[in-house]
From TrEMBL:
Pfam families recorded: 3-dmu-9_3-mt (PF06983)
Top-level division of the source organism's lineage: Bacteria
CDD domains referenced in this protein's UniProt entry, alphabetically: PhnB_like
Protein name (database record): VOC family protein
InterPro entries: Glyas_Bleomycin-R_OHBP_Dase (IPR029068), PhnB-like (IPR028973)
Domain (PhnB-like): residue spans on this chain: 6-131
PANTHER family reported for this sequence: PROTEIN YJDN, PROTEIN YJDN-RELATED
């Protein structure tokens, strides 16, 4: 793994408002904002202005956010996942395989339009993991 897990907050259409709130509270910076409409990924038109991915940073405080994606439901307790940036295809495949054995797959292991291999799995104890391996030559 490249570093410690990164908190990833999911909101039901209020990610932009939440980011502005955190910006005011923590006096940090919002970066890398991408909406569903801007992504090279088919989504319903009603999600076009919703945030697909954004980052927040203030000193050592760092987290990522998005609005809910298609069939996902947001309730307090399941709106936070931990994102892992992994070092190799082997590492992501291994973790995905072990987590899904007793867990629930939210997004199948797959290549993505952002140049990574990705999967999202809720483990046997309810923790949601975003597994990401950036392929060589991709930038984020």
């Amino acid at each position: 793994m490249k570093h410690h897990p990164i908190p990833y907050f999911t909101f039901e259409g209020t990610a932009r408002e939440a980011l502005e709130y955190y910006k005011e509270v923590f006096e940090g910076e919002i970066t890398d904002v991408q909406t569903f409409g801007e992504a090279n990924f088919e989504t319903p038109p009603e999600l076009d202005d919703h945030i697909m991915h954004a980052r927040f940073k203030k000193g050592d405080l760092f987290f990522m956010v998005s609005d809910v994606f298609l069939n996902q439901n947001v309730t307090v307790g399941n709106n936070i996942s931990l994102a892992l940036e992994l070092d190799s295809t082997e590492e992501i495949e291994s973790l995905y395989g072990r987590l899904k054995e007793k867990g629930t797959v939210y997004m199948e292991f797959q290549d993505t339009f952002w140049g990574a291999t990705f999967a999202k799995v809720k483990d046997a104890y309810g923790v949601i993991w975003d597994l990401n391996f950036e392929k060589a030559g991709s930038s984020n």
